[in-house]
Structures are given as C-alpha cells and as structure tokens.
Design brief:
By secondary structure, this protein is mostly beta strands. Helix content is about 10%, strand content about 50%. Strands 1, 3, 5, 7, 8, 10, 11, 12, 13, 14, 15, 16, 17 and 18 form a 14-stranded parallel beta sheet that branches. A four-stranded parallel beta sheet has the order 2-4-6-9, with no helix packed on it. The chain starts with a helix and ends with a strand.
Length: about 190
C-alpha cells in the first residue's frame, strides 16, 4: 500500500517535471514542402522564428511573406514561385531547383545571429536586397551567377561594410544586374 502510493506520487512528479521542462524548450518548426506537395501562402505571413525553409515540392509565395527564415533550400526538383511576395532570411540561400522570380523581393538581413551566409546555385531574382548593420559576410559559390531583373540593393555601414566573397579565393562568382535594373550600393567590400 504505502510504498506503492509513494511510487505513484513520485512517478506523477517526474511526469509533471518532464512536461514542464518540455514546455521551456523553444519550438522548432521548419517549413518543409515535400516532393509532390504544393503550399500556397496566398496573402498570408509565415514567421519562421529563425527556422528553415526546405522545398522539394512547390512553394507558392503569391502575395504573402516568409519572414525571419534562417536558411532557404530549394532541393533538386523543388520550386519556389515568388509571385509578388517577400522572402526574408538571415542565412544561406541554396538553389538546386527552380526559383520563379515574378515581381518578388528576396531580402537578406541580419537575422538569427548569423554573421556569414552562403549563396549557392544560380538564381534569377526580381528584386534582391542584401543589407547589414553588422558587416555581414556573404559567400557566393564559385562559378555561380545571381541575376537580378529589377532592383539590387547592397548596403552596409561606413563603420561595418557588407562583405561579398567568392567561396574560393582568387576565383569568381557573378552578380548580373540586367540593363533595365537599378542599383543602390553603399559600403561594400568585394
């Protein structure tokens, strides 16, 4: 009787303590679009709180927004259709699939505590913005080309200029702003 009752009380305390500890852990919820799946944001906003976007199927941003993403990965066979929406990230952009630019904006920002971000794969952006107040270092995969159709912004500060680097020293990566495009570039080290 008594020993069994004490064991039950102790077991309940352990379960309660385990539950409370689980509640204190931060939630982690990547936006994952599996192969053959379609996700359409419509006009919605998805705040990823520094988790990742991983697309093997089709992600349609439409007129919506993805904000506070850490890394964006378009896997082989995956597609992100930017529509007229916004994709905002603090980390790596990796494209082994397809990005359909539309009139969208892709904003690379000082998010998620990342001082360096890698841009891999060839991507055509409608509008691309790289802005930092911390002198962030962007590393572009050697031999890749990032094309910008409309507007290219590259902005650091006088005290902490933004840094653009190739992944292999003395070899190049390319940013191609189309002739019809406009640029706003200040405080950058290349």
């Amino acid at each position: 009787g008594r020993v069994e009752a004490r064991i039950r009380v102790f077991a309940r305390l352990l379960l309660t303590a385990s539950f409370l500890l689980a509640m204190l852990r931060p939630a982690h919820a990547d936006l994952i679009v599996p192969a053959n799946a379609v996700v359409n944001l419509g006009s919605g906003v998805v705040d990823l709180a520094c988790t990742d976007v991983i697309v093997a199927g089709s992600l349609q941003v439409a007129s919506g927004s993805i904000v506070n993403a850490r890394h964006v990965t378009i896997q082989a066979g995956g597609t992100i259709d930017g529509g007229s929406g916004i994709v905002e990230l603090g980390g790596n952009w990796t494209s082994a699939g397809q990005f359909i630019a539309g009139t969208s904006q892709v904003r690379f920002r000082d998010l998620c505590g990342l001082a360096t971000a890698t841009i891999a794969g060839n991507t055509t952006f409608a509008n691309a913005s790289f802005a930092t107040a911390i002198g962030k270092n962007y590393v572009f995969a050697t031999g890749t080309t990032q094309t910008v159709n409309n507007r290219l912004e590259i902005a650091g500060t006088a005290a902490l200029p933004i840094q653009f680097r190739s992944s292999t020293p003395s070899q190049v990566a390319f940013i191609n702003l189309l002739l019809s495009g406009v640029q706003a570039i200040q405080h950058v080290g290349v």
